[in-house]
């Protein structure tokens, strides 16, 4: 088997980081993946144009939940401008594999939700690249 | 009754020479679409190579030959389901289009505001959404017969109560569930529905490819099914409808081939079934479907059914031995009540992860909501399920491979 279910994915799935709610978040964003039923709610705290805290709740496959766990670790402290520029490649680098066309939407669910939350916090509409994630 | 020999049958299917992730393909997703034998592939390719022409038009040899092959395929389909003749066999794209055709023509013309269409909680989206659309257009309403969760079958008491209470104009019901595998007693449903004056539509997508389905015995008014799930090509499906109903129904599409005569202000419709097939048809699809019906008929629908019952029994047994696996649908004592479709979940592992692990083992299964969200998420309360489904080319060794893949999934997810 290739690394689709590498140790990193399984451990982040079984022991997710940043799982839970934030009291009084700046933004809350819910997204789901209609084909497989993966669901994700992201709570963001933004301070001085940066992500000061982020947590998530969700239910879904190992790929979607593990990438949410790793992504929330990665983006703490990042500026909103940096988040806006993130794309598929960042997720592939983060989880260490390209899950292939059938599973890519699972991997990018958390990034799509995060970018939407950031755009909403700035009173902007999510751009096309975000919607296509 | 002849015995099905999957080893021999597999040789007719070139796809089984293909390797997936370096492993031989184990195909357990025939409920989504079936594989195609050489006989079907050759019939289509032979049409393109030796008599490609439009039908019902050309006064020349290859067009006449194409017309005959297309019409002949309808005779084969009519015989397979015991329809009176080809006038009752309308070709469409698939089951979904067949149901939509009923909604957009017969139901559109005969139902009025306040009328009820009775469907069930077991339906595929293809037998839900067309009625939602009709409700928006015409102000009809639709009601659901409940599932009896203890049996994973329809609650027949609820069905009878709803017949009595709502007096539906149409009862539209799935013959065999693509999620639970449950075979519904459509004969008794048709009999009861007719007593209340309702017409009956049967969704045969998962039954016609796998068992003998006889429209005159069932007594349904409409039967919808797809060619691609029964060894035929995609893009060809069948709406069977009683000829008296089709005669009284206005066509939905107008154009070439569906008319006898056209004047500036009006037209005379063509005979059945052509009245419902405007424009150039899916000729190669019809010819391919004809070859598929030949292949199935040669094996015998009863033999196919028996083979799949045995595989289902074997699979239910194998799965029951794996801790953490939950199987849906009628149990092993009621294999007679189900087709070879087994949905399952593995505790702690999402269905898409299971499907990915199966894929790496060369095994194709379906994962997700199976286009039946009200059933999977509503009734069963699962976000998604894994599903294996069988056909004539599957054997016990395919199920053994699937069972090993489940053990592998448990190992990866540390469930052992």
Distance between the termini of chain A: 26 Å
User: Which consecutive residue ranges of chain B, at least 5 long each, have pLDDT under 50?
Assistant: none
**What's the alpha carbon Rg of chain B, rounded to whole Å?**
22 Å
Average residue-wise pLDDT of chain B? 96
Number of domains of chain A: 1
Order of adjacent strands in the largest pleated sheet of chain A: 1-2-3
Indicate the radius of gyration of chain A in whole angstroms.
14 Å
Instruction: Output the structural class of chain A.
Output: alpha+beta
Summarize the structure.
The complex is a heterodimer of chains A (133) and B (416). Chain A has 133 residues and is of the alpha+beta class.
Provide structural commentary.
The complex is a heterodimer of chains A (133) and B (416). In chain A, helix 1 (7-14) crosses helix 2 and helix 2 runs parallel beside helix 5. Chain A has a single domain, classed as Sufe protein. Chain: A, CATH 3.90.1010. In chain A, strand 1 and strand 2 (38-47) form a beta hairpin. Chain A is an alpha+beta fold. Chain A has helices at 7-14, 62-75, 80-85, 88-95, 104-121, 128-131, and strands spanning 27-33, 38-47, 50-59. Chain B has 416 residues and is of the alpha/beta class. The longest helix of chain B is centred in the N-terminal third of the chain and has 21 residues, at 61-81. In chain B, 51% of the residues are buried. At the A-B interface, loops of A face helix 12 of B.
């Amino acid at each position: 088997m290739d690394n689709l279910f590498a140790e990193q994915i399984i451990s982040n799935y079984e022991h997710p980081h940043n799982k839970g709610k934030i009291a009084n978040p700046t933004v809350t964003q819910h997204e789901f993946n209609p084909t497989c039923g993966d669901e994700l709610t992201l709570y963001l705290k933004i301070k001085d144009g940066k992500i000061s805290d982020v947590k998530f709740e969700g239910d879904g496959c190992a790929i979607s939940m593990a990438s949410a766990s790793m992504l929330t670790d990665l983006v703490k402290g990042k500026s909103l401008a940096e988040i806006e520029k993130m794309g598929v490649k960042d997720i592939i680098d983060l989880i260490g594999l390209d899950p292939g066309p059938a599973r890519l939407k699972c991997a990018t669910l958390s990034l799509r939700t995060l970018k939407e939350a950031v755009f909403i916090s700035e009173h902007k509409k999510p751009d096309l690249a975000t919607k296509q994630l | 009754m002849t015995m099905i020999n999957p080893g021999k049958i597999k040789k007719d299917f070139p796809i089984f020479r293909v390797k997936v992730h370096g492993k031989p393909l184990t195909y357990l997703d025939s409920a989504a679409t079936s594989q195609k034998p050489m006989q079907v592939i050759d019939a289509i390719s032979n049409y393109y190579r030796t008599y490609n022409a439009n039908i019902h038009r050309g006064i020349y040899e290859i067009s006449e030959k194409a017309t005959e092959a297309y019409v002949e395929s309808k005779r084969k389909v009519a015989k397979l389901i015991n329809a009176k003749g080809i006038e009752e066999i309308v070709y469409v794209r698939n089951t979904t289009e067949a149901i939509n055709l009923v909604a957009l023509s017969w139901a559109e013309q005969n139902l009025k505001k306040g009328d009820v269409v009775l469907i069930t909680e077991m339906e595929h989206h293809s037998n839900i959404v067309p009625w939602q659309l009709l409700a928006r257009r015409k102000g009809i309403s639709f009601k659901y017969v409940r599932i009896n969760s203890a049996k994973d079958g329809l609650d027949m008491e609820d069905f009878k109560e709803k017949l009595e209470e709502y007096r539906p104009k149409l009862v539209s019901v799935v013959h065999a569930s693509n999620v639970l595998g449950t075979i519904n007693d459509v004969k008794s449903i048709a009999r009861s529905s007719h007593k209340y004056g309702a017409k009956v539509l049967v969704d045969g997508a998962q039954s016609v490819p796998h068992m003998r389905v006889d429209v005159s015995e069932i007594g349904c008014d409409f039967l919808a099914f797809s060619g691609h799930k029964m060894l035929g090509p995609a893009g060809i499906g069948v709406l069977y409808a009683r000829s008296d109903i089709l005669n009284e129904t206005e066509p939905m599409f107008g154009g070439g081939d569906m008319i006898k005569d056209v004047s500036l202000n009006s037209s005379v419709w063509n005979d059945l079934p052509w009245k419902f097939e405007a424009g150039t048809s899916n000729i190669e699809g019809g010819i391919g479907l004809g070859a598929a019906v030949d292949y199935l008929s040669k094996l015998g629908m009863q033999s196919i059914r028996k083979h799949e019952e045995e595989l289902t029994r074997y699979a239910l047994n194998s799965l029951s031995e794996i801790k953490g696996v939950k199987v849906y649908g009628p149990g092993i004592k009621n294999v007679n009540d189900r087709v070879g479709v087994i949905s399952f979940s593995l505790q702690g592992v999402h269905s898409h992860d299971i499907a990915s692990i199966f894929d790496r083992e060369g095994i194709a299964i379906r994962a997700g909501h199976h286009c039946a969200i009200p059933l999977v998420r509503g009734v069963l309360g699962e976000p998604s399920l894994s599903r294996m489904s069988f056909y004539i080319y599957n054997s016990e060794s395919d199920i053994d491979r699937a069972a090993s893949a489940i053990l592998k999934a448990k190992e990866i997810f540390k469930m052992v």
